[in-house]
Design brief:
By secondary structure, the chain is mainly alpha-helical. Helices cover 46% and strands 0% of the residues. The protein contains four helices and no strands.
């Protein structure tokens, strides 16, 4: 009672990615805009129960690192 061995299916060519994932700079900008939007929603609070890190489900130090890498800083107009 051996089952017949079927030939392996040929490997499919990777699908071309459309949208932001196709362009690393576009993906970076989408990430930057998302983080800034969450920071504004949390009144630029990074840490704590009401902080952006909690909303984004990441460690506060990871968020700070991403902010630095993406050049996200609170402007003087947003301080007041």
């Amino acid at each position: 009672e051996l089952l017949p061995v079927l030939p392996a299916a040929p490997a499919a060519a990777p699908a071309r990615t459309e949208g932001p994932a196709a362009d690393p700079e576009a993906l970076r900008e989408v990430e930057r805009q998302h983080i800034v939007a969450v920071l504004k929603r949390t009144d630029w609070r990074v840490d704590g129960p009401q902080g952006a890190a909690r909303v984004l489900n990441m460690h506060p130090s990871t968020l700070r690192s991403r902010m630095q890498k993406l050049g996200i800083r609170r402007s003087a107009a947003e301080l007041s």
